[in-house]
Amino acid sequence: MSVSSQTSEGKWYHVETGRRDGKVSLASNVSLPDATISVFDSTKFFASKNLTPNDMVYLLGGHTVGVARCSLFKDRIYNFNKTGGPDPTMSPWLLVELKDKCPRISLIFDNTYPLDVKTPSLIDNSYFQEIKKGNGVLQIDQQIALNELTKNIVHDIVNDPYFYTKFGEAMVKLGRVEVLIDGQGEVRKSCRVVNKKPFIFGGQQVFCTTFSCPPCP
Ligand code: HEM
């Protein structure tokens, strides 16, 4: 069975339903690569999940929306590879922007900056256009536009009117990674949270999640 998921530009792709998810959701259980991972290591990481370099580049198109914290790319602005200077692959425009939004020393706030520097709230291929111009915010974003393993894929996406379809296909493949089977996990009512569990508290039936108050029995 499948349902449709809508991108912010009104394009649709079908996602498979009935996937079982874990009953516990903890950031500490998630294995995600660092923003400084090399393209080669990243292709190996995606391959370990049965995803090709092509899937990887389309999926990184997920960075067409959302933001990253300055602390995760500050080295690229002020001390790239311990050189005391910026990452030479960063465009002069982006360098000025990021220096403004991410001061070298900020003791309290960890500001954020959009991963797609031009249209951060639209799912479009502007992320790919921008990384080709040196406007990749994370190191991995910039590197996929430059590395021999992936730069042709990025080039093709920039000129691809079917970007949305292929992005959707890669998302469906991602949804098939390490699926729980049989009695493991649960099908979530809302994909963002583990299901609430009923229990009796103070004589009344209440519903809880693992971290709700009152805590689960
Ligand atoms: C090599 C693979 C990847 C790396 C190294 C990576 C790294 C990152 C990092 C460092 C951030 C910023 C997080 C923060 O500031 O707390 C981020 C944000 C984000 N990533 Fe990725 N990512 C990868 C793949 C993906 C994929 C495959 C998707 C989705 C298909 C994705 C979607 C997002 C989104 C939507 C955000 C913004 C989150 C927000 O605004 O709160 N990323 N990523």
TrEMBL record:
Stored InterPro entries: Haem_peroxidase, Haem_peroxidase_sf, Peroxidase_pln, Peroxidases_heam-ligand_BS
Domain spans labelled Plant heme peroxidase family profile: 1-195
EC primary class: oxidoreductase
Residues at which heme b binds: 63
Enzyme Commission code: 1.11.1.7
Catalytic reaction annotation: 2 a phenolic donor + H2O2 = 2 a phenolic radical donor + 2 H2O
Function, in words: Removal of H(2)O(2), oxidation of toxic reductants, biosynthesis and degradation of lignin, suberization, auxin catabolism, response to environmental stresses such as wounding, pathogen attack and oxidative stress. These functions might be dependent on each isozyme/isoform in each plant tissue.
Keyword Secreted: yes
Binding of substrate, residues: 33
Cofactor: Ca(2+); heme b
Cofactor note: Binds 2 calcium ions per subunit. Binds 1 heme b (iron(II)-protoporphyrin IX) group per subunit.
Entry's Gene Ontology BP terms: hydrogen peroxide catabolic process; response to oxidative stress
Protein name from the UniProt record: peroxidase
Keywords from the named record: Calcium, Disulfide bond, Heme, Hydrogen peroxide, Iron, Metal-binding, Oxidoreductase, Peroxidase, Secreted, Signal
UniProt-listed SUPFAM superfamilies: Heme-dependent peroxidases (SSF48113)
